[in-house]
Amino acid sequence: MAVLYGDPSKEGSFSIRAKLPAGYMVAPHFHTKDENLTVLSGALYIGMSDTVDKKTAHALKAGGFHHLPGKMHHYAFTKAPTVLQISGDGPFDINYLNAADDPRTKK
């Protein structure tokens, strides 16, 4: 992940870019503030739910844009390597619905 603009940990506008490998999963979560996603390459599959159901997720392909309102519960995954850009107003956070899904707490 690379910060392109601003500081996502502080108040104010930011943009970050992330490269996700094939088979990457982001468990159900939400952000306190709005999130804007743009897929630069590959495809990001997004579902709006408290649980993962890969059959109902929609594909956001290269060039696609998606606005997620703050506190909207969602999950995401990739099938192939994917590059995406995330922008919004900080501070940027990620709150997993199931604390055990948070990769920051895993050793």
Fold and architecture overview:
This protein has 107 residues and is mainly beta. Helices cover 0% and strands 50% of the residues. The chain contains no helices and 10 strands. The strands form 2 sheets. It has a 5-stranded antiparallel sheet, with no helix packed on it. A 5-stranded antiparallel sheet has the order 6-5-8-3-10, with no helix packed on it. It is globular. The two termini are 20 Å apart.
The helix fraction, in percent, is under 10%
Helix and strand element order: EEEEEEEEEE
State the end-to-end distance: 20 Å
Number of helices: 0
Question: What form results from the Cα inertia axes?
Answer: globular
Low-pLDDT runs of 5+ residues are none
The count of strands amounts to 10
Strands of the widest sheet, in order across it, are 1-2-9-4-7
